[in-house]
Amino acid sequence: METLAASIEIILRWDVFAALLIGSVGGVIIGAIPGVGPAIAIAILLPATFSLEPIVGLTLLLGVYGSAMFGGALPAILINTPGTPVNALTTYDGYPMTERGEAPRALSLAYGASFVGGIFSVICLMALAPVLAKVAPLFGSREIFLATLLGMVLVVIAHRGQNMAAGALLCFGIFLQTIGLEPVRYTTRFTFDQTWLTSGVNLIVVVLGLFALSQAFVLLSGRDDQKKPPLLEGRLFRGLWEVLRYPKVALSGAGFGTMMGIIPGVGEFTAQFLSYTLAQKTSKTPDLFGNGAPEGIIASESANNAVPAAAMIPLLALGIPGEALTAMMLSVFYVHNVIPGPNLFRNEMDFVLALYLCLLFLNILALVFLMLATRPLLKVIEIPNRFLGMTILVLSFVGVYSLRNSATDCAIAAVFGLLGFILKRLSLPIVPIILGMVLGGIMETKFRTSLPRIHSPLDWVNRPIAAVIFAIIVCAVAYHAWTLISARRSVSNTDSERPTE
Questions:
Q1: pLDDT tens digits, 153-191
Q2: In sequence order, what DSSP letters do the residues of 136-190 get, joined into one string?
Q3: Which side of the chain, N or C, has fewer Cβ within a 10 Å radius?
Q4: How far is CA 246 from CA 14, 240, 251, in A?
Q5: Cβ proximity of 260 and 267 under 8 Å
Q6: pTM for the structure as a whole
């Protein structure tokens, strides 16, 4: 109870509440604008958060991260264009309901399901906090090294059909992290006698280039064709209560989101797919899915909104980000010399609980804001793409320059912006580069810290937790290899069964 009281005292400060309010409301607005999304907003906000206290900066970023998916349902349902990528599945049943004249009902279903998913996830994690405080200290350098390796493996496996590309981009991110002074003996690596490379390639510069600048280039090179959302007639509160008619769908979606959020490299898409598939298989009207099924909206939105809180578990407990947004947040910790990991749960449990309470309140604030301001928010959907692109471009360069007042950083960000633009045009993933930079640094540090205690290869797995993580890695690789072989066999069998002309 003392820890909880201390956590409440932290978030009752005016600056924390202001950050929570700005982040949650701003996140909804950002999510409602197609083509922007939380990754770009967080990338632009990162330089500004470095001057804030850790709890204030992280609350602001968490507000954007957690509430953007609330707003992303708005264009997904009204104009069949997801505000954030993870709202794509919502279009399957949301837009058909709009075409039937049930847009208010579809929106309120999405809001209610998102609220259930977010609250469920936070409550679960707050209940697990004492357990995590006991388990986290059991992770030493070897365990964190193997957990980081598991995260890298899962990142590659999660990109089905693009495993080779994801692996190559992950390795490229690891290489970028090695440029500059190495962390133990402070010798230079891959600088080629260029003094501007001595300090390495800044993660925030790369993030702003790959996410913000690349999206600005995409928007500027596209058309300004904007769909006008339909007029909303009727009350928005109906669907909130209708969510309670499908408790199994909402809770199973929230459960999938919580579980998938904890696992590094998996995220919202897998959680949504599992939730949506289960809801369809257990529904009394499975044929309605894809044509305006309320369960479809609930399954999708409850799953994706449960992920943000759960994704904080590997970040806070082990210092391992599971995806790009938590990787960006990790830099805020490092700037303020607050190191996520076992010691954070052991020594600063009130700080951890304060973050979870902020996640709880941001769900409430996002829901209240949407219920009161949905109709005015329809205007942001009509903002021209090129105007958005130019705004993102200017803000990104301002953010990059403000980091170190360096024109070199702006040039590096522009290069990575072009790289991100090319990768997006080729439909290749960007996230592995960022995770490679972050996880590569953690892996190298823990590997070199572990070496004095390693006398044979078996010493890596001679402790229970290390052995379990290694077994999971082996099983994950073996299962993925088996699925690839099975897919190839099925394709070859299909080809052999075709009649020859």
A1: 888 887 777 888 888 999 999 998 888 887 777 788 888
A2: GGG--HHHHHHHHHHHHHHHHHHSTT-HHHHHHHHHHHHHHHHSEE-TTT--EES
A3: C
A4: 38, 11, 9
A5: yes
A6: 0.80
